[in-house]
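Morning!

This is the sequence you dropped in the shared folder:
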Amino acid sequence: MAEDHRRYGEGQPLKEVIDRLMKAYGMESRMRELDIVQSWPDLMGPAVAQRTKEISIRNNKLILKIDSSVMREELLIGKQIIIDRVNDFAGKNVISDVWFS
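The structure's back. Tokens below.
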């Protein structure tokens, strides 16, 4: 029994254990998506956040529902900036494209 206890390690940081569980259950990407959605106002500013009605990530594509055609066109021009900000925030390449609806 003592051997089993040492195998799991008393000194493992809780974050490491949680990260491994999230990865094992396939929840890592969903949690990353939730972090991005929650941080959207900080990433893009309040004006963009107020006009963004829905955010999702599917197949490495950030899908945004924007309620302003003018804002949508401006964001389309700056699409690479959005990709860079989101990926920098996530700490890895989470998205490769942005789609607007």
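Headline: Residues 28-44 form the longest helix (17 residues).

More detail when I'm at my desk.
O.
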